[in-house]
Amino acid sequence: MEPVRGTTPKVVKSDEEWREELTPVEYAVLRQAGTEPAWTGEYTETKTRGVYVCRACGAELFRSETKFESNCGWPSFYTPSDADHVILREDLSHGTRRTEVLCATCHSHLGHVFEGEGYQTPTDQRYCINSVSMRLLPEGE
């Protein structure tokens, strides 16, 4: 994964350390900008209330209050829990222009954000996030 220009992650680990700590699927998504297959993620349809944190470093990313049903096959949120919790960068891979979403703390790949799709959300944005890139901490635990 190429570094984010102009920023240094707060959590820095070698490639070997990431490989030791993450499963092969987690590593492929978080560190190599992969995508889990649609409708396979554990959080795609969950309605459990709580906080979603980065699976690589534990930093807070999203809250269940901003999760919505987009029927796209991945968990969707209309905003991160705080704008400073994610980094957005242009992604020109796969012959298209998209906006990649990264964890601001460790610069791991989370997914992509899309705008103007007509969802009735306060931001008109859809943060399309891989389940494998997050961990849900349920309310009250």
Automatic annotation (TrEMBL):
<keyword id="KW-0479">Metal-binding</keyword>
<keyword id="KW-0862">Zinc</keyword>
<keyword id="KW-0560">Oxidoreductase</keyword>
<dbReference type="InterPro" id="IPR002579">
    <property type="entry name" value="Met_Sox_Rdtase_MsrB_dom"/>
</dbReference>
<dbReference type="GO" id="GO:0006979">
    <property type="term" value="P:response to oxidative stress"/>
</dbReference>
<dbReference type="GO" id="GO:0030091">
    <property type="term" value="P:protein repair"/>
</dbReference>
<dbReference type="GO" id="GO:0033743">
    <property type="term" value="F:peptide-methionine (R)-S-oxide reductase activity"/>
</dbReference>
<dbReference type="InterPro" id="IPR011057">
    <property type="entry name" value="Mss4-like_sf"/>
</dbReference>
<protein>
    <recommendedName>
        <fullName>peptide-methionine (R)-S-oxide reductase</fullName>
        <ecNumber>1.8.4.12</ecNumber>
    </recommendedName>
</protein>
<dbReference type="GO" id="GO:0005737">
    <property type="term" value="C:cytoplasm"/>
</dbReference>
<feature type="domain" description="MsrB">
    <location>
        <begin position="15"/>
        <end position="139"/>
    </location>
</feature>
<dbReference type="GO" id="GO:0046872">
    <property type="term" value="F:metal ion binding"/>
</dbReference>
<dbReference type="Pfam" id="PF01641">
    <property type="entry name" value="SelR"/>
</dbReference>
<dbReference type="InterPro" id="IPR028427">
    <property type="entry name" value="Met_Sox_Rdtase_MsrB"/>
</dbReference>
